[in-house]
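Please check this today:
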Amino acid sequence: MAQFRFVMRSGPTIGKVYPLEADEIFIGRDATNTVAINDAEVSRRHARMELRGTAYVLQDLGSTNGTFVNGTRVSGMQVLNSGDTVSFGEGIVLAYESVMDMNATVLSNKPAQTAVQRPTPAPVSAPAPTPPPVYKPAPVPAYSGQVPAGPVPMPPAPVSAKTRKKFPVWLIILIVLLVIICACVGFFLVIDQFSLWCKVLPFLVPLLGGTC
C-alpha cells in the first residue's frame, strides 16, 4: 500500500488522487508518466520523484513553467514532507499527503466504568468559639530620678538675628541729607544776615552780580 499520495487542489481534475507507490515517479503531460496531468502548463516530462528511505525527493527536469514547493521554486533536489503543496506552473496545485493505514483497528467501545461508592464523610463539628482577648495595660516605665510634679518650663527660644528689626537705610540717608541741607541754608542765612559775603565767600560775590 502506498505511503504517500498527491491530491489535486487546483487543475483540470480537482480532487483526483494519485497514489505514490514506485521508487521512481515521473510527472508530466505525457500519458507515459507515472503522474500524468493533461494541462498546457505541464511539460511532457516535467518533474521526477525518487524514494529515499521513507521520504520522496522532488527534482525539476527543466520544465518551462517550473516546479514549486510551498510557493518556492525548486532548483535542485527538494525533500517533501507531509502537508507540502507542490505546484506545476501557476494553475496546477497538488497536496502531498501521508496515507493512513485503513486496516488499523480503532477501539470505539469503551469499557463501562464501574461506579465507585465513595464513603460518606463524617459530619464536621463546629469549632469552639474563640474567647475574646484579655486587655493588659502597658507597663509604666520606671524613672531613675524623682518624677516632676508638673510640666517643666521651657527656656525661651533665642531671637535670631533675622527676626530683629533693622532701621531702614533709606531713612538714615534721608535724615542725613535733610541735616546737610538745613546746615547749608542756615549757613547762607547767617552770612547774608551779617553781610559777610566779602569776608567768607568773596569768590561768589562776582558770580551773584555784586562787588566787594
Notes: The longest strand covers residues 4-10. Helices lie at 169-193, 197-200.
